[in-house]
Amino acid sequence: MSLDADTLADRRRLKRRLFFWRAGAVVAVLVALIVVLAESGLSFNRTHIARVTIGGVIVDDRYQQDMLERIGEDDSVKAVILSIDSPGGTTTGAEALYESVRDLSEKKPVVAVLGTVAASGGYIAAISADHIVARGNTITGSIGVLFQWTQLEELLDNIGVQMREVKSSPLKAEPSPFHKADPRSIKVTQELIDSSYDWFLRLVAERRKMDEATARRVGDGRIYTGWQAVENGLVDELGGEEAAIAWLAETHEVDEDLPVTDWVPAYPELGFAGFVGQALGEAAVVAADGLTGKTQQTKRLTLDGLTSLWQPDR
Hints:
Blueprint: H1 2-39, E1 48-58, H2 62-73, E2 77-90, H3 91-105, E3 110-119, H4 121-127, E4 131-134, E5 139-141, H5 153-159, H6 183-207, H7 212-218, E6 223-224, H8 226-231, E7 237-238, H9 241-252, E8 260-263, H10 272-280, H11 284-292, E9 307-309
Parallel strand pairs: 1-2, 1-8, 2-3, 3-4, 3-5, 4-7
Antiparallel strand pairs: 2-9, 5-6
Helix pairs in contact: 1-11, 2-3, 3-4, 6-7, 10-11
């Protein structure tokens, strides 16, 4: 009996030690999270300016759109900075982003800060804001729409491969990389491009207060430096985030001393980072990245459909 009593007592002491170790680990994680939040300038329900980064290839991203909607509903957000560094992407992705930001701008002032590149669909994102700031050497503009395909007919002939097809009508799946383009398919494709291009030009004319002729002149597909963009009315002023905050203070009475907090979409497939984003707000995903040492956010890079994407010839 004495041995059994001693064993039982040892087990109880071991359970107590395990409990304290587990509780300590939980407390340590919470403290680390709070420290990272503090070092990142993040806090719960703290009045701030939201920074939304539009980077890489722009696609139709409903998680990003949901985040923008939540920013509009968050009373702690007093203004929004769109930090754009993108060559563009799909035309529908740029359209969806534009509409989401315009809806957001009805609730919060929005200013765009252009980085190294904000061209094509990246410029569509820029004109969705109420004010545009760029560096002198920012690459921007590239107003236009693109449809490309690879012509493989001669290559296939050289290696002895023929592509056979049966289709419902001559214009189905045209133009094709496997044979010379029919003039009718080129005409239809050009009409498709022209329709999207006219939409792009209407946005430029409306948002930059230009007549149609001026919008077409500056929107001929060329790229501009930030200096040239200011001269041509495509950008409002030169500078960085400080200039954007000064504009917010001057025109919307936003406190210049407010912290600027990063918001990022909370993708559900990201495990811990997704949970943090849903539970604590998208900005806290940055803290999750700090704890795990990894970048948790990903973006799908499928480029189906028309593209508004600047890519230099090589």
